[in-house]
Design a protein that fits this description.
This protein is an all-alpha fold. It has helices spanning 19-67, 74-81, 86-96, 103-112, 126-133, 138-144, 151-158, 164-188, 197-217.
Amino acid sequence: MEGTIVVSPGLPEVAPENAESLGFLSELISDSLGRLDSLKRSASTAILDLLEANVRLGWYLEDARHFLRKEGTYVAWIEQTCPLSYGHTTRLRQLAKHFCRDSIDNLQRLKLGISIPGLLENGEHLRRQIAASQCGSMADMFRYAGLLPSPDRAVASGSNGNGEHANSNAKRVKEFEHLLATMEKKTIRINPERLSTADREKLISRMKPLVSFYSSLRGESSEPSCRFSASDFR
């Protein structure tokens, strides 16, 4: 019919005059996407390397502190041998305590003859532990360990008048995070398969408030948040 344009399936309605140039641009775009994908993988690996190196550094600093505990010269030793500030090395040690020592670290301490009582060890490879934490930066790691406030808590603290209520709530959250970390360390030593029926039911009953609180944090429940104290986890 007159005035009707017939378009073949799968073809553009109008073929541009510079089809050759468009094809070249298509190749450039495809190459760029492939390069971006490669760079993302490289960046992810580099970030994981960085996070792992910081945690292992925290482990080594803790080992050095334990090694020098009798002489009481750890602080002076750090100031003389480490370019990092004492405050930063302390944060790294605190961060490292949130990860279980793996077989690589166990062999290293065995060679050095360092034995730390109560140390969490025999964990899976540190890289897997870090990947499971879903942290993508050192700031994320410090927040994960409770050493930095989350962005939401920081905003709430800055927009709440004199900040007294926000600071009080932040303190309670930090205490709760510490209790959770303590509980996590204790549960590592418990084998659920060896629990008696009575102990199993008792633990399930005690953990119900935690499940309810977890659901409320995710917005899955309209029930009020539960209050916790140190006695709830003893």
